[in-house]
Design brief:
alpha/beta; Rossmann fold; 2 domains; six-stranded parallel sheet; 15 helices; 12 strands; 15% strand; globular; disordered C terminus
Length: 397
Amino acid sequence: MSVNNRREKKNDRVIRSDDPRSREASTGSSTESSTESFQWEKCPHILCIRPDNMGDVLMTTPAFRALKESLPGRRLTLLTSSAGAAIARMIPEIDNVITFDVPWVSTQDVPNREAVVKLVELLRRRRFQAAVIFNVQSQNPLPAALLCYMAGIPNVLGYCRENPYYLMSPWVPDPEVLCATRHEVERQLTLVEAVGATTANRQLSLSVPPNAVIQALESLSATGVQPHQPWLVMHTGVSEEKRRYPAEEFIKAGRRLTSELGFQVVLTGSKSERAYTEDIRKQIGPGAVNLTGKLPLDVFCGLIAQAPVVVSNNTGPVHIASAVGTPVVVLYAMTNPQHTPWLVPNRVLYFDVPEPLRSRNMLLQRFPGPAEPKASVDGIVKAVEELTIGTIALSGT
């Protein structure tokens, strides 16, 4: 059954910390009376915790919207990573951002214990009455729950496989035990439904400034790309090596897209990937240009919004494309199955992760099948042609 459609509602039950089942054999005292009588539907300010990457934040935006729409005037503060904060400032549902790279999520910086203590103090001063912990199926929510506990936040909503006792209330037992069974967007929408937050709009949310679109088109023209002729964005970079489709396959696909379909290929990536993408550009040859590391994030989003199609590894630009409605071909490493493009024309082409690069997380050892079709040069060219057939025909008239 499709990850996008499978729902295990029978297991999505909510247990409050004052429920006897939450204590099981515990002989501890009951939770604070404020937790027992708390009305989520009237809470004016909620802390949302999503400490991972840009794409994860974007896939949570429908849940943010549900929280906002459930109470007019409600404010949302997002605690997220440096990467997440960069995109959060373009999400209209978010009112305030607290940027912090927590030590239980992969980061390039060395964790600082004193900084964590200061974060707790900051959250305590803000006097949040409620928090929602958003995590993927393979992550443990308890460090974030403990953070809330130490900060004195009495009402904490989240998924957890084991009983969190006094760290969460309400607690939603996680039905996705061994592997993800639904899309990340659906997972988070179901979570906030537990406190009555719903929305009819399930689209991802991203507001690209108009001037960023103008700058993107100017940058495109400066490279010699003609926007009225077929062009596409090819994002060959990715933050994790295990999710990187081989460069030689991108090169072969790029050559065929330029020579057979007449596409201009615009390569993108982070500043640290500039040499990597430049080598790919040279080997693709005429018809390829390189904008890697040259665009601020808002301008990059503007570029994605204007692109007829995006070809990318499974990484942030796939979710940016989903948010702005751009068709996307994703070369999808068989890691987390629940991060496919959301509500946008797409083609997902799967490839195996080399054994030395596979995650040690036991919850990522199983990938639900069938993972088809497999990624290939032929598959990439066919997918681009299918998603842009109208564009190609128009440019040829």
